Amino acid sequence: MKSIESVLHEHRLFPPPAELAADAAISGMDAYKTLVAEAEADYNGFWGRLARETLTWKAPFSKVLDESNAPFYTWFEDGELNASYNCLDRHVEAGNGDRVAILFEADDGTVATVTYQDLLQRVCRFANAFRRRGVKKGDRVVIYLPMSVEGVVAMQACARIGATHSIVFGGFSAKSLHERLVGVGAVALVTADEQMRGGKALPLKSIADEALALGGCEAVKSVIVYQRTGGKIQWNADRDLWMHELAQAEASTCEPEWVGAEHPLFILYTSGSTGKPKGVQHSTGGFLLWAAQTMKWTFDWKPTDVFWCTADIGWITGHSYITYGPLAVGGTQVLFEGVPTYPHAGRFWDMIAKHQVTVFYTAPTAIRSLIKAAAVDEKVSPSNYDLSSLRILGSVGEPINPEGWMWYYTNIGGARCPILDTWWQTETGGHMISPLPGATPLVPGSCTLPLPGIMAAVVDETGQDVPAGQGGILVIKRPWPAMLRTIWGDPERYQSSYFPEELGGKLYLAGDGAVRDPVTGYFTIMGRIDDVLNVSGHRLGTMEIESALAANALVAEAAVVGRPDEITGETVIAFVVLKGARPEGEEAVKIANALRAWVSKEIGPIAKPRTFDLATTCLRRVRARSCAGCCVR
Ligand code: PRX
Question: Which residues face 75 on adjacent strands?
Fold first, then answer.
């Protein structure tokens, strides 16, 4: 957690570039304030107008927001639409079928170009294949794929037939995949033989096989496999099918399934402060509206833009700003299979120049690691690349430190591109607090002001507003269309986690601390107020890692805390009381390595503790998160 003094100390102000402001979707602070006032004066009218203007509806909605069953809100409920129609068909019908939808760059640098017409046909073929395999509206499909056009195709194909997708990030273990397959009751699983990352082929199908072998997912009738590498895999003829063979056999047109606006578009698991990860359920209409609207407002999207979001489709950022937002507005985007450091740490800058990227959206961890790489090796410095195509930069997933911000602004943006520090969450569906590139003067490290229609506030533990300059709890005071609808299968947990009684039961509790600047009113996020860690922008629950460790036969008890880290924001530190004697030297290293591998197997490599303290005898103080453990030795 940051200190308030350090936050309020920052006074550098960067006004929006005049040229960008002149032509922006929201041009100048007065235009921003007009929209904010419109939302305040007529909340339903404001959201209804945006929904009608931004999306194409099969059947119009008669009511905007229904609060009668709060906090289970519904939006545009009797309206009907289809997300894939909005992302694909309507652009083709408008004569933009030849526009490039995706510039895919593989790990090895090979580029494939996919137009809207191509993408629509690929989605239709795959949607038909799903239907032929009996997958229908309301069914759940788990997708465990690498960053690929096929990933986007699989998600859009689900949306086309009204199936609800649940993506599992390719870095999760068989056990995590299994939990999610069982959790959502999947009828089909889409995976790949292997994934390519940093020049290495990593298994996916064999992990999927392992997950299915754990039992309890007999409802999974089809395992559809994208052939990425041609690597050797086990084949189960009863259920395994090649994606390309299925698609080849199908027609390239497919009537979309028109669904109600509240129909669940997807379920995405994320870590909470207690227990198992939560299946965050999103709607079709409200989610898609906000994904598209924020493309226009936050990223000031224009038809000439080449947009690049470096997130993985396995996280919410990839859902909103790869699969849905950029396609809903008919944009051209870069999709990258690999990692920023392969074959060298200048890869991002090289790709920006090569694809003439205009809007670049990445995470502070990536920026910090590339700053370090450039400091060590001049050859990968951004100054060696022509980055003049850029006009807007974005940051997401974790706090960006002012030094990282200034480097990004100066060295990547050439001191002419606004940086949008976008604060949001898996649960919020899209940006909530963010500067607008043609309106908001920027302050390094601050996500500035809520987007129009988003009623963000900082309150105390009883739900009362706190004065500016005083830290407090970040809440959203009114429902918004893209908010999660529930936690899959656990409505009570939805209510108690996000609308706690202590705050009056009506405020959405984000789980972050925040402070507002007394002069500008700008928000700065102080960090999580619960036991959720943010490691390289990945959200991890301490309890989840503790339970994984406690399940190991050597472990009597475990406690996990986050330690600040220069590059990754936080790292995971585990304090473990072993059942046997406290190990020394080599033996301690061996056990720590075994426990690290164990966590990797139980959850996934992203959750591996960086260091272990096996000399711990009492975890009371660690558990209270009152110390970094140095006094427990
Ligand atoms: O703590 C906040 C942090 O990431 C959390 C949400 O994580 P997740 O659901 O995985 O979504 C990440 C991508 C949207 C938040 O509760 N966070 C996200 N963006 C920022 C941030 N912290 C500070 N500044 C941000 N811009």
Answer: 65
Kindly give, in sequence order, each residue whose CB lies less than 8 Å from that of residue 29, ignoring residues fewer than 6 positions away. Answer: 439, 440
Residue 521 backbone phi and psi in degrees, to 5: 75, 5
C-alpha dihedral sign at 16, 55, 455, 360: negative
Q: What is the CATH number of domain 83-96+115-265?
A: 3.40.50.980
In this prediction, residue 276 carries a pLDDT of: 87
| pLDDT tens figures, 489-510 | 999 999 999 999 999 999 999 9
Q: From ligand 1's centre to the CA of 529, what distance in Å?
A: 12
CA distance 473 to 479: 17
Nearest CA to ligand 1 atom 12: 397
Lookup result for tokens 């063979």? 245
- All structural domains of the chain with their residue ranges: 83-96+115-265, 531-614
Ligand 1 atom at minimal distance to the Cα of residue 511: 16
Can you tell me which atom of ligand 1 is nearest the CA of 315?
10
For residue range 591-626, what is the model confidence (pLDDT) as tens digits? 999 999 999 999 999 999 999 999 877 777 676 654
For domain 531-614, the CATH class is alpha beta
Dump pLDDT digits (tens) for 262-273. 999 999 999 987
Residue with tokens 């960086």: 610
Q: What integer pLDDT is reported at residue 417 of this predicted model?
A: 98
pTM of structure: 0.96
